[in-house]
């Protein structure tokens, strides 16, 4: 069942690791947040203008990871796995202190973040959680890539398909209901790349911290990692994890079914922009609440039937 009230953590928790693209050591500390605050990154290596809100309007780049940037050009990158972990853990509000520009990649998945979050005491807050209910289908097509969202009154569902020429990755497909399915395979699925692309990525100045400890590497017809895959659909499951993290940037828990073909960070973030331009296709709701406000008129509450 969808929860009625917002949540935050009760005590601070910390993580340390390396940035996937920068290669720099990185430390984050997650602190409790106030109601309606959402997720805010705080660059503690900077003395001022150092707050970066996790919202789709602050996405400045989506090349191989999602980068947020405030109006003072302060950035935080590779936020997607941490945001997905907070979403799955049911955390709505938090301050994330970070001592440089990139969130640590950990093992390339959300597993380490979520394992700690599950053991962390949470606090229910005195404000109802905001949901975004999809009313009409919205679609974005970019060449062969496409993504859409349709109504689903009770859950956030993702139907994702990959289409790689590489026969190991191939045409993997999976459908995940984030409210009702076991999410272990999604949470533990790691970022991946083709061995033939590594040099191209490094020439872009990226993946300086990449290794077999934090990424699955596919070389033609084999997995280079000695332990192999964690689950038989790890590639598409990681893409679903990324999408969930990117959709946290909507600022809502979304009630809808997403269908995505050959997507990634760029497509997800472009889609969020289109979604918020389609105001008639969605409505802001709170669970078991008779006051439901239309997203396009947030300050004017309209009495409608409650969503149970």
Question: What's the CATH topology name of the largest domain?
Answer: lpxc deacetylase, domain 1
Query: In total, how many beta strands?
Result: 22
Main CATH class of the largest domain: Alpha Beta
Shape: globular
Strand/helix succession: EEEEEEEEHEHEEEEEEHEHEEHEHEEE
Give a description of the structure.
It is a single chain. The protein folds into two domains: 124 residues, lpxc deacetylase, domain 1 (Ribosomal Protein S5, domain 2); 167 residues, lpxc deacetylase, domain 2 (lpxc deacetylase, domain 1), CATH 3.30.1700. Helix content is 19%, strand content 33%. It is built from six helices and 22 strands. Strands 11, 12, 13, 14, 15, 19 and 20 form a seven-stranded mixed β-sheet that branches. A five-stranded mixed β-sheet has the order 2-3-9-4-5, covered by helices on one side. A three-stranded antiparallel β-sheet has the order 6-7-8, with no helix packed on it. Helix 1 packs parallel to helix 2 and helix 5 runs parallel beside helix 6. The chain is globular. The relative contact order is 0.19. The C terminus is likely disordered.
Features:
single chain; 308 residues; alpha+beta; Ribosomal Protein S5, domain 2; lpxc deacetylase, domain 1; 2 domains; 7-stranded mixed beta sheet; 5-stranded mixed beta sheet; 6 helices; 22 strands; disordered C terminus
């Amino acid at each position: 069942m969808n929860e009625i009230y917002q949540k935050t953590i009760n005590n601070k928790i910390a993580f340390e690791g390396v940035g996937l693209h920068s290669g720099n050591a990185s430390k984050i500390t997650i602190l409790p947040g106030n109601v309606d605050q959402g997720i805010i990154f705080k660059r503690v290596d900077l003395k001022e203008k150092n707050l970066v809100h996790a919202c789709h309007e602050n996405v400045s780049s989506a090349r191989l990871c999602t980068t947020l940037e405030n109006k003072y050009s302060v950035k935080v990158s590779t936020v997607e796995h941490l945001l997905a972990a907070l979403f799955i853990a049911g955390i709505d509000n938090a301050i994330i202190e970070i001592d440089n520009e990139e969130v640590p990649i950990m093992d390339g998945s959300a597993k380490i973040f979520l394992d700690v979050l599950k053991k962390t005491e949470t606090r229910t807050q005195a404000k109802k959680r905001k949901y975004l209910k999809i009313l009409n289908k919205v679609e974005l097509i970019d060449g062969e890539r496409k993504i859409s969202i349709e109504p689903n009154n009770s859950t956030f569902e993702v139907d994702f398909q990959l289409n790689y020429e590489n026969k190991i990755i191939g045409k993997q497909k999976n459908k995940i209901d984030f409210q009702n399915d076991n999410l272990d395979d999604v949470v533990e699925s790691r970022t991946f790349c083709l061995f033939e692309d590594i040099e191209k990525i490094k020439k872009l100045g990226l993946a300086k911290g990449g290794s077999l400890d934090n990424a699955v590497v596919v070389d033609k017809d084999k997995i280079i990692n000695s332990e192999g895959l964690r689950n038989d659909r790890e590639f598409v499951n990681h893409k679903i994890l990324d999408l969930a993290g990117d959709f946290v940037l909507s600022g809502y828990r979304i009630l809808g079914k997403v269908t995505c073909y050959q997507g990634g960070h760029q497509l997800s973030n472009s889609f969020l922009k289109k979604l918020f331009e389609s105001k008639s296709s969605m409505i802001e709701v709170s669970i078991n609440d008779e006051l439901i406000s239309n997203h396009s008129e947030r300050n004017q509450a309209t009495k409608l039937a409650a969503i149970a």
